UniProtKB/TrEMBL annotation, chain A:
Organism from which the protein derives: freshwater metagenome
GO function term, MF aspect, one: metallopeptidase activity
Sequence ranges assigned to domain Metalloprotease TldD/E central in this UniProt record: 120-223
GO CC terms, sorted: cytosol
Stated name of the protein: Unannotated protein
Organism classification: unclassified sequences, metagenomes, ecological metagenomes
From TrEMBL, chain B:
GO CC list: cytosol
Family under the similarity heading: Belongs to the peptidase U62 family.
Domain Metalloprotease TldD/E central, first and last residues per copy: 112-220
Coiled-coil residues: none
Alphabetical keyword list: Hydrolase, Metalloprotease, Protease
GO terms for biological process, alphabetical: proteolysis
One function term, GO molecular function aspect: metallopeptidase activity
Keyword Protein biosynthesis among record annotations: no
InterPro entries per UniProt: Metalloprtase-TldD/E_C, Metalloprtase-TldD/E_cen_dom, Metalloprtase-TldD/E_N, Peptidase_U62_metallo, TldD, TldD/PmbA_N, TldD/PmbA_sf
Region (Disordered): 431-450
Source organism of this protein record: freshwater metagenome
Protein name: Unannotated protein
Domain named Metalloprotease TldD/E C-terminal: residues: 227-460
């Protein structure tokens, strides 16, 4: 038994709102409904079980270049009428913006994605609990120094629909499940932490063994770590770290930031901004990406965009607003409710060598396995970059002792130019950027 | 919002499968937000969100379900889901009799922002834009946000408690970009209180705008921050987040119980410099983290966590206090009705010392003076923390000299607490903050007098 796709009902609600548009008004309605489960296991018992149901509607009205929005956490018909009235009232206080407007259908074909899996719906609660318990058990069995903080199973199913007076009509649904475990490793002197996770469209795709192994590994490998001396070094970013770094780079290649004078790459189109080894694409149409999607937040087809080609800046991601303002076509990267533009599934085109091969060629360096405080340490407007880090020393081509409590710092502009190699070890991660080992020269390390 | 007799029936439904505790947390939020960017009021948005979360505890297992449907039928359905989730077998009927608690007011509200016209809110942002742009010709971009929200809350549980609360928060955020020869720099400032629109009678929004613009302008002349370990002097009201991250989280009883805190088993021990007395205070009138009751209905408290360097107590919610057989401390908080409560901080601050702050700087031969800190994070199990310096200067020969570009500051919580060697007498609260834990954000405040840490690692690029 599986539930039918009810996103069409949401589209009916959205269309009903759009039909209420007065002459001269542009109206967009975004309607969504979701159901999620979260199970936490601790010491073999269910610690909590959360069952969550939510629904919401967001309405945007544009008239004479003025925009007003309003939202509400229920789909009651009486409330929806009030939301529309509020959005209309709100636009009276906005200032006219000649570029304000909703996305218009642009003829780009949608690349269909399979974002829904019926079998997840049929999975019993018992099986979900067992998975979280199994993950805890396997993790504890991995190393005698390991304790488990919590072991979690979660899943979510969501349906959404967008309709606009400009002719956009889309609806769809998506589901997926996730396992995660937090670990503590003690050696008598100190405690270190780690985590592991697994993602899938159904529970059979969840790689429990790998999640357990990585959670053990992340915590134990830092035991006995020391603080390294301050110096300039070559760093090798682990794929998971590269992905976090890419998310920040992606944020700077954004048409909204460019038109508002906040992008450090604003005047650099067509120029060399990175080492020629780097080709960066945003490709939500690649089904391997966990954040693959068929449409963007404005209801346009998601598409593949090359942002940096062989080191040369080639494109900014755009919402319909920023594209209109820059006189360019949109790239299908609009955020929901007209709140900006964003990358959907970033990927560096991989090189050829494995991380192990890369390390053999480095005399003095550090393999960065985790970063801390990236959000507070990077200024995406000035490009200043500084983050707490932990990892392994690299000496004469060999991985050595663990190190922690140091920072690596540079600027985003310099780091891109200082890329010395892109690994061949592409890794798909549950975030909007893909991982790959990345070698960067001449990074300042601050420690003792 | 919901009648007591309905609450009684819903709680009884939650207990039907044999659970020993049931709770309803219902809230109704209404808010307004206005954004200004690029010289224009971009959009005004309003929202409403109401619903109830129902928690049922049976032994060691908590079941939780939430609904946007506040009718009796909607609440009963959620109670059944939560009860089923917490099912321990057995089953019985327990009668719940509720006693409404007297309302408690910590932050009296003079002007409910929902009674103020939208035009007045828009006008605040226009003033911000003007003031920030007038601060210097190099200011090239300003964005600002105003938001207010009023939440009505009802909490009832099977121990017989019913508590009502009404929370009003008003917030202004300003961010400015300055453009100079060496590229762009940013500056940020914010103002937020558990207060109504009277906030803007007390504080001129132009001052907030000028502070943000000033930070961006200052950094145009900044040189790269040093790399390595140096003494760090932190200006009053700008480094409370250090205590929030470096030790506050480690004093949350849920993390302590799982052994995920470096402060486990340390009550009664010296964990900080004897100069340090650290308090978590939900009763601090009008501060961003102030609450009359926590999200489990327990009155907020003034809790001393560290006294003269000695760890005195952790912070507690219902579940942890129940397990340890001790009183709660008013720290059970949640982001919304959709979330389970956890142990959370409120306003966390270090009490005043005795020194003149100018003397602390004068006695520092070489170091860094931090005048504004950005966000941070901590690993509670190791105590390792990181946060960003968004306004900092060099100290050379006992004087504050050149401004520094942004960089992270890193350290280990227990070590930094021991390394505080000077404490000023100029206590101030800092910017309003949002504390994240397990995916939930709650409003918190922090504060501290000017103080010096003997040595911290500065993650800059200058050698």
């Amino acid at each position: 038994m599986s539930s039918p796709d009810r996103s069409a009902e949401l589209l009916v609600i959205a269309e009903r709102v759009v039909a209420m548009a007065a002459p001269g008004e542009q109206v967009e309605a975004y309607v969504s409904r979701g159901l999620s489960t979260e199970i936490r296991v601790y010491e073999g018992e269910v610690e909590h079980f959360v069952s969550a149901q939510s629904e919401s509607i967001g309405i945007r009205v544009i008239r004479d270049g003025r925009t007003g929005t309003s939202s509400c956490g229920t789909l009651d018909a009486s409330e929806i009428a009030e939301v529309l009235a509020e959005a209309r009232d709100n636009l009276g206080y906005g200032e006219p913006d000649e570029w304000a407007g909703l996305a218009e259908p642009d003829g780009v074909a949608v690349v269909p994605q399979s974002l829904w899996n019926d079998s997840l719906e049929r999975t019993t609660t018992q099986r979900k609990i067992e998975l979280a318990k199994l993950l805890e058990k396997l993790t504890l069995a991995g190393d005698s120094r390991i304790r488990v903080d919590d072991s979690n199973y979660s899943d979510a199913a969501g349906e959404a629909a967008v309709a606009t007076t400009t002719g956009i009509r889309v609806a769809g649904r998506e589901n997926g499940c996730y396992l995660s475990v937090g670990t503590l490793a003690d050696d008598g002197n100190e405690t270190q932490t780690g985590f592991g996770f697994a993602v899938g469209r159904n529970v059979d795709e969840l790689d429990v063994e790998r999640a357990a192994r990585e959670a053990v590994d992340r915590a134990t490998r830092l035991l006995g770590a020391t603080k390294p001396d301050s110096r300039r070094v070559t760093v090798v970013l682990d794929p998971f770290v590269t992905a976090q770094f890419l998310s920040i780079i992606g944020g700077t290649l954004n048409g909204e930031s460019v038109v508002k004078g906040r992008s450090l790459f604003a005047q650099r189109m067509g120029e060399t901004v990175a080492n020629s080894l780097l080709t960066l694409v945003d490709d939500p149409t690649n089904p391997l990406a966990y954040t693959a999607t068929d449409i963007d937040g404005e209801g346009l087809a998601a598409r593949r965009n090359v942002l940096i080609q062989d080191g040369v800046l080639s494109k900014f991601v755009q919402s319909s607003y920023s594209a209109r303002r820059m006189g360019l076509p949109t790239t299908g990267n609009g955020s929901r409710g007209g709140s900006g533009a964003g990358c959907l599934a970033l990927q560096i085109l991989p090189g050829t060598r494995s991380q192990a091969e890369i390390v053999t060629g480095i005399d003095d360096g550090i393999l960065i396995q985790q970063v801390q405080g990236l959000h507070s340490g990077v200024n995406s407007v000035s490009g200043d970059f500084s983050t707490g880090a932990a990892g392994l020393l690299i000496k004469n081509g060999t991985l050595g002792a663990p190190v922690r409590e140091f920072t690596i710092a540079s600027t985003l502009q310099r780091m891109l130019l200082d890329i010395a190699e892109v690994g061949g070890d592409l890794e798909w991660l549950p975030m909007s950027a893909t991982g790959v080992s990345l070698v960067i020269h001449d990074v300042t390390m601050s420690g003792a | 919002m919901i009648d007591n007799d309905i609450l009684e029936r819903v709680l009884a439904e939650g207990l039907r499968t044999g659970a020993d505790f049931a709770e309803v947390f219902a809230s109704d939020w209404r808010g307004t937000g206005v954004g200004l960017d690029d010289g224009k009021i971009e959009q005004l948005s309003t929202g409403r969100n109401r619903g109830a979360g129902i928690r049922v505890i049976a032994g060691e297992t908590t079941g939780f379900a939430h609904t946007a449907d506040l009718s009796e039928a909607g609440l009963m359905a959620a109670a059944r889901v939560a009860a089923e989730a917490a099912r321990q077998g057995g089953g019985g009927i327990k009668v719940v009799a509720l006693t409404t608690q007297a309302a408690r007011i910590v932050s009296p509200i003079k002007i409910d922002p929902s009674t103020i016209g939208k035009a007045a809110k828009v006008d605040l942002l226009r003033r911000v834009d003007d003031a920030a742009r007038s601060a210097g010709g190099a200011i090239t971009q300003v964005s600002a946000g105003y938001s207010d929200g009023r939440t009505r809350i009802v909490i009832a549980n099977s121990d017989g408690l019913v508590a009502h609360d009404e929370r009003v928060r008003t917030l202004l955020r300003v961010s400015a970009v300055a453009n100079g020869d060496a590229g762009m720099q940013t500056g940020f400032d914010s103002l937020g209180h558990t207060m109504g629109f009277e906030l803007f009678d007390k504080v001129q929004v132009e001052d907030v705008a000028r502070a943000a613009a000033g930070r961006a302008l200052t950094k145009l002349k900044a040189r790269p921050a040093p790399s390595g370990s140096l003494p760090v002097v932190i200006k009053a009201g700008s480094g409370g987040v250090l205590f929030h991250e470096a030790c506050g989280h480690g004093l949350e009883a849920d993390l302590v119980a799982k052994g995920a805190s470096v402060y486990r088993g340390k009550v009664g021990e010296l964990v900080a410099s004897p100069l340090v007395t650290l308090v978590d205070d939900g009763t601090m009138t009008h501060e961003w983290g102030a609450i009359a009751i926590d999200d489990e209905g327990h009155p907020s408290q003034y809790n001393v966590l560290i006294e003269n360097g000695i760890l005195t107590d952790y912070m507690w919610d219902y579940l942890r206090a129940r397990k340890e057989g001790r009183p709660q401390s008013g720290n059970g908080r949640r982001q919304s009705y959709k979330d389970l409560p956890m142990v959370r901080m409120t306003n966390t601050y270090v009490l005043n010392g005795e020194e003149n702050p100018a003397d602390i700087i004068k006695d520092t031969a070489n170091g860094v003076y931090v005048a504004h800190l950005g966000g941070g994070s901590v690993n509670t199990a190791t105590g390792d923390f990181v946060f960003g310096m968004t306004e900092a200067y060099l100290i050379e020969n006992g004087e504050i000299t050149e401004p520094l570009r942004e960089g992270n500051l890193i350290g280990n919580g227990p070590q930094v607490l021991r390394d505080i060697d000077r404490l000023g007498n100029d206590f101030a609260m800092g910017n309003p903050g949002t504390c994240g834990k397990d995916g939930q954000g709650v409003p918190v405040g922090d504060g501290q007098p000017t103080l010096r840490v003997k040595s911290m690692t500065i993650g800059g690029t200058a050698s």
